[in-house]
Amino acid sequence: MVFIIxxxxxxxxxxxxxxxxxxxxxxxxxxxxxxxxxYWKDFFKxxxxxxxxxxxxxxxxxxxxxxxxDYLSWRQADCHINNLYNTTFWALVHQGGLSNSKAEERLKxxxxxxxxxxxxxxxxxxxxxxPEMFRKGTVLIWQKVEVAIDKLIITxxxxxxxxxxxxxxxNKVLPLHVDIIGDGFWREHLEILADDS
Length: 197
Description:
disordered N terminus
C-alpha cells in the first residue's frame, strides 16, 4: 500500500517554513502512523497487522500551480504503473503457481501492453475493469458537506432541554478514486488551487 500525504500551501512565510516545516511534517507523519495502526482492524478485520508500519513525509513548496499538477499527475501515473505490475505479479503467483522469483523474472522487461495481455489471456482479467481505487489511487480533498448534529436546546419553556437535529456545513476529508491527470478534476474542484484556499 502506498499512502501519500500531500499538503498544498499557497503562501508560506519564510520564517515559518524554515523553523516549523520539520516539526509540522514529523507531527503529521506521527499522527498518520498512529491512526493507521489504531484503525487497522476497522478495515482489515481478519488480517492481523504483522509488522509496525513506517511512513515518511515531505513538505514541498511548488513554484506554480502547473508544477503542482505535473507532480500529482506523475504520482498518479506511477500509482497506475505499480498497480498494474503488482496485479500481474500476484496473478502469476496466486493463480499461475509461479514462485515470487519466477514471476519477477517473467515480468522483467515487459511494458504495460505485455502485462495487460498476460492478465487477460492467462487469467481472464481485464485490467481496465479493475476498481478505480487501485488503478487511480486515492486522492484526499477537503470538501464542505452538510452534517446533522444532535443538540440539546434549552429555552425558558424547556429548562431541562430538548433534543433537536441541527444541520451545519463542515469541512471533511473525502477520499476520491478519480483521474487527476486530465482537466476535468481541476475544473470540478477549482477551490484546490484558488488563492484563498
